[in-house]
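User: Quick sanity check before I run a bigger batch. Here is a single chain. Can you write out its predicted 3D structure?
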Amino acid sequence: MAITTLYAAVFALLSSVGAHPLVFLSVAIFVTGIGLAQALLFGGTKPRMASILAGAVLGFTMSCTALCLVVGLRPQLGWRDPWILFEFFMCFVIGAPMGALWGYLVGGLIAGLFLSKRPESEDTPKRGANPSVAPAPDGPPTNRTVPPE
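Assistant: Done. Predicted structure follows.
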């Protein structure tokens, strides 16, 4: 339910600024890719690294895809453009680092969303509770320590 709400909020924001449908698709692919990378890469043990890696790959791939669409729309030169190799190189130089940065940020949002939804188990101490302080038999906690078992 939280994921659906997140996507709804992002799509509402994009809709309010009049974004093109391809922007909706790009954002959905990017966020979904980061979420899948956090779950699947490195066995789920390194979500930050997975987010950065997936963001770099997705950023490069998406910028190259955008370049291919733009080149296809330039009938006068198309693929015979002498700058085409430089343009693909710039996709790597700019797309990968920016994708890594956005992957890290989106990964943090996804992780925060799941951390806020994680229920506290009964065997973990509550926030602010000091497990070394024993409660008094008839009142609030005292500075008396728990005897070793």
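DSSP finds four helices and two strands in the chain.

User: Great, the batch can go ahead then.
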